[in-house]
Design brief:
This protein is an alpha+beta fold. It has 1 helix and 6 strands, in the order αββββββ. Helices cover about 10% and strands about 30% of the residues.
């Protein structure tokens, strides 16, 4: 159990482990809430542990995009070419 860590240390440990387990009891039985994003590329996602009932909020930042696919669009006819 990681209850003896400071909030900053717990946050770092959670992020470095990929956010796969509860930051309190280290259970993998966690559930996520609705993602709430802003227009600045940042967002929050509430989390809850199904085992110890701890709650926390993940903080997300857009770091880039991949796999961009382009297609041609005929605006005059308003259909895809």
């Amino acid at each position: 159990m990681t209850t003896d860590l400071t909030d900053a240390a717990r946050s770092d440990r959670y992020a470095n482990a990929g956010g796969l387990s509860c930051p309190v009891c280290e259970s993998f039985g966690c559930f996520e809430g609705d993602f709430d994003a802003d227009l600045g590329g940042k967002g929050d996602m509430p989390q809850r542990c199904g085992d110890c009932k701890a709650t926390w909020t993940e903080q997300w930042t857009l770091t880039g995009i991949t796999d961009v696919k382009e297609y041609l669009y005929n605006w005059a006819d308003r259909h895809r070419i």
